[in-house]
Amino acid sequence: MRLMSKIFNLNDPGWGRGKGDGNDSSQPNNQNRPGNNQGNNGGPPDLDEVWRDFNGKIGSLFGRKRRGGGNMGGGGNGGGPVQLPKGSPKLFVFIAIVLVGLWLSSGFIIVQEGQVAVVTKFGKYTKTLNPGLQWHMPYPIEEAQPVNIAQLRTFEVGYRGSVGNKVLNESLMLTTDENIVDVQYVVQYRLMPEGAPNYLFETVDPDDSVRQAAETAMREVVGQRPMDVVLYSGRTEIANSVQQLTQDILDRYKTGVQVSTVAIQNVQPPEQVQAAFDDAVKAGQDRERLINEGNAYASRIIPEARGRADRMVFDAQGYTAQVIGTAQGDTARFAAIETEFAKAPEVTRDRMYLATMQTILENTSKILIDNQSASNMLYLPLDKIMQQASRSNSSTASPDPAAGMAAGSAGQSSEGSGSSSGSTSGSGGRNASGGGSPYSNSSNLLTSPYSSR
Amino acid sequence: MPRFFPYLVGLVILLAVASSCVFIVRERDAALVFALGEVRDTITEPGLYFKLPPPFENVVRLDKRLQTIESQDPERIQTAEKKNLLIDSYAKWRISDPRQYYVTFGLNKTAAEERLSAQIRDALNAAVNVRTVKQVVSSERGDIMDEILANVARRAAPLGVDVVDVRLIRIDFSPEISESVYRRMEAERKEEANRLRATGSAESERIRAQADREREEILAKAYADAQNIRGEGDADAAAIYSESYGKNPDFYSFYRSLESYRSAFSNKNDTLVISPDTDFFRFWGNPQGGQAQEGAGSR
Hints:
Chain A has helices at 2-9, 48-67, 89-105, 168-171, 196-201, 206-223, 227-233, 235-253, 274-343, 345-362, 382-392; strands at 108-111, 115-121, 124-129, 132-135, 142-148, 153-157, 159-160, 162-166, 172-174, 180-191, 257-268, 365-369, 444-447. Chain A is an alpha+beta fold. Chain B contains seven helices and ten strands. Chains A and B meet through strand 9, helix 5, helix 6, helix 8 and helix 9 of A and helix 1, strand 1, strand 5, strand 6 and helix 4 of B. Strand 12 (365-369) of chain A pairs parallel with strand 10 of chain B.
């Protein structure tokens, strides 16, 4: 039993497969053979038989090679260095039985997870073995070829390794509007679950076929679309179309391959025109920016205007309220006074008049001109008067220059304001006293008429 | 020497002879069985077959799987508008009639591929010469491939070859045309960029102008409303005044005049030049005044 398991460990599916038959140069590669004949050396003594069996197979291989296609049967007793035991026929029979057992046990294979084994009987496809411990009729009746169906195979088109490392003659292609674009994409595929026999028997180079199909499909699809679609909007759709078209082509070739993804890594305009394209993209952003600025202006200015509009309306309402209030106040006051007035018109009139005049005259500068014996000429140094008034007011405001003289000046320099020009008039003989009245803080200037006779 | 040694030798010889009388045809192969130089049988089904040992009968195997011919260098082909295109293609073919194929090419696969390549080139030229670049690149790409395939398949059939598919891979402009294409692309992009910027600023301007207009509208309407409100206020106030003052216009004039005097002359800087013959000064130097009144002459 231990011997058996040892043999199983020799799961070398390639044993005795016809190699070098002159015209089958290209085996499908990518087969990932698991553990090639390891552990045949240095085993315990009971491995001798196995070792011999192995030698026999090698021998038969060489033998076939020499003969170019003929089949040396008898895997066990090929041309190996078999040491014949010296003994009775019984021993010989026993050995024969052991050899036959060994030969039969060489039909055991372990199919790795993710692989299937395609079994051919005298070259004709019979069945596909699933992963696990399997048995088939031993060589030369049946042969098993392992095929990896789980492995996702990948190849890159238009670049190698990284997108920056371009392969221009793969990546540059024409669009329908006769522009050139630069496309990098990657294709992943695996075998269909039932695809292993086709993969092995239908095409010389299934893996190369996938690549060719993907390239022609991509160029055909891109060639049917305008550049803008290829560059900007249509990537996903293009990838899907390419996947579909590639799959159709491969189905026609019966490769047994399923394209799982076509992923476009990068689409650009060619290097030579990249700058112009970038600028166009920038221009698009500039356009957005300008429009946004316009919108920002609008959204700033219109609320402002609304605010101002509201202020105008509210101001008007305030004004209205104020005007009406004032009117009501004024009329109320007036009505009150008027009631009094109606009781004693004359007295009230005089009283009001005098009170008002008093208030006015108390608060202003005054010049009283008694013009009864009026001469025609009167000199009033108004500017001086104003100055004085403002000084006595102790106001810091500079006085307004007097606008206008009461009479034409006689060319004298103005001086002596405030002093009485004690002239003795013939008639009235009235004294014009200068100086401020002690009762009011107004500066009163009483000027007597200057008679020039 | 053990007794069974002769048996063993016999067995080995027997096996050798037997092995030369059987042969296996694999899935991927087609086999021709030659009997003294002429083809006795063509086998396309895989399995175990018998024959006479050499030299009476020999077996030749041919690969019947689908094979590929890829063009080595892109073909330079002129289109209808006399532009040069560089075109790559591949073809898929298989041996359909092993006997015919073997008679034509023997085991020389290169010869077969060269013959097919030449046919493909001819068909490709014929198909592209009558079409414009646009048709070749996009609209009639499929037609071209179908045309070439039909053409080549028809001519290859007598050679025992089945051409399954011919596909164009690369269709590129020749370098001198590529250069001008790049320049055109550049010019188009510049135009596009200018257009984008121009429309952007135009649009922006439009938005601003619209905003300005809206602002003016809002303000004008607000002004109208405000004036309206003020007017109504003024009217209401006037109505209040006239209703009140209308009762006694004379007194109103008097009262209002006094009010005005007071507010008009309220400042020290106002200088009044007064003549004493006003009503206010009627007692000034004349205690009797105009009327028989007690003199209130102030000193």
